[in-house]
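Deliverable D4.2, example record:
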Amino acid sequence: MARRGFAEILTGAAVLLVAAGFLAYAVAHSGRSGGSGYPLVAHFDRIDGLVVGAEVRISGVKVGTVMSAEIDPKTFLATVTLTVRDDIKLPKDTSAEIISESLLGGKFLSLTPGGADAVLGAGQTITITQSSISLEQLLGKFIFSMASVPSAPKGGPAGPGLTPTATGGEKPASGGEK
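Output generated by the structure prediction step:
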């Protein structure tokens, strides 16, 4: 009986060791970075759906991570702190935009480098930003605009009380002809 208990403990320990190995491998190869790189700051009107840990991309390639998102109590703008890899030197006129990954997915921060000669240094601010687009607001505006479109007048395309003629003109629909 003691031999059986020892074998079960040894098997359980082996399973835990293998599981810890898989976990370590998954974390090491997940593509998440621990925030290495230099920090930058950007201010947005809205950051709906952008979360800490979201990717920062240039041309679709991950180059950094969103480190924090806070509200500025003076301007009420969302202040996003991000990191960019040390080997990427961004021009001062770089723009930042919050993009949806898909209709159902999360958001990421897309950087578009400009053409300036001067580069952004650690802790500097990206001044050209475009806030997150809310799909709910767009859908609401579309529905509202469709509800306010006037419908076609009764009586067809010629207007009320008129009927089209064979020559393309119109004549009164009832008894108004002389």
